Amino acid sequence: MKEIIDYLITWLCYGDTEAAKRVAYTDDEKALETYDVIIVPNGHLGKDLVLPDLKKPVVEQPQKDKSIIRTDILYTAFFFTSRAEELLNPKRDEHGRFAARFSMLSEKSRLQIPRLDEYARLLLKQLNLPLPESGFKHIYLTHDIDSISRYRHFRGILGGLIRGEWKTVLAALRDIHEDPIYTFPWILEQDAKVPNAEPIYFVKRTEGKGYDYPQYCLWGRDYKRLKHMLRHNNVYLGVHGSYYGSIPKIQYSKMYRAHYLRCDIDQMQRLADAGYTDDFTMGFADQSGFRLQTSRAVRWINPKTMQLTPLTLHPLLVMDNTLSQPNYMNLTEDEAYFLCERLIEKVRLHHGDLCLLWHNNNINDSTYHRSLYEKVIDCI
After folding, report:
1. Which domain does 55 fall in, by range?
2. Element (H, E) at 203
């Protein structure tokens, strides 16, 4: 337990180990003789799980430069970054996911507030330390490659011909750049507008059955050409795992994102055991915002075993489908842009990591995601 407490205190102090040594997690007020700040435990960390108190933290200053934080912000940090809420609430959506609508964060726009980052600022203020400068620590522009093309595999060709789209089908067969979802050159052009951005493309490693369909051939000419283009543009490649939860063996990347953002606590432990170091799944599919209540990367604590794992979680702020789909947020383009702008500014304020997800197959004339992505890129 000490390892978890020490890690969370240091994490709340933005990694400042010397500052963390000035903070105690205890209900013994005599500790103020040694420490500058005391966080009073609520008695639940490592014991029975309860929903955390999300009211404004109660802070007392019994002495000059000495503070007592009577709200257990450490337990709240553990509760959200470990995903412990999923152990308290058994509800799942049609894809087996813990959806935003089941979470206590669904109330009163709580998802739009990175509460743990606000707690971190509070703690730094009590320690009389400077707040982090406004700006992004990292910018992750991520893209899940669910399919490379629409009309260069048998099922897609047949569907296109049945719909009478034979001209488009023939054009795509002659040149993959004419395929409506081969939008990678355009995406690369947009991402290049953001200085210091770290583009990551998650490549499917599945059997291509059911919800994993289609699985493009990783040894085929189309993917090899795409991979060469991505590598030439200094893009990172991650693993896009199966909808059904199987964990691919690590070959070229230790970065992972689950298909459909479908990933439970047991699967995350399997990811850690398999050697994956960075997970980019942590956003709700049905609501954009701060699922982990932070914009900063954090190591995952397994709430079942109470072990601090080597797996780092990277909060996913916005996914394109979340904004537009009728069964999710169902926003207009203007509404989607204003939400993205507000959320991005929160990340900037707290010097967090901005992580966006846009799919190549959504950037077409049938959605607003091409023009929206341009606007979002311009506001970063």
Report:
1. 2-123
2. strand 197-204
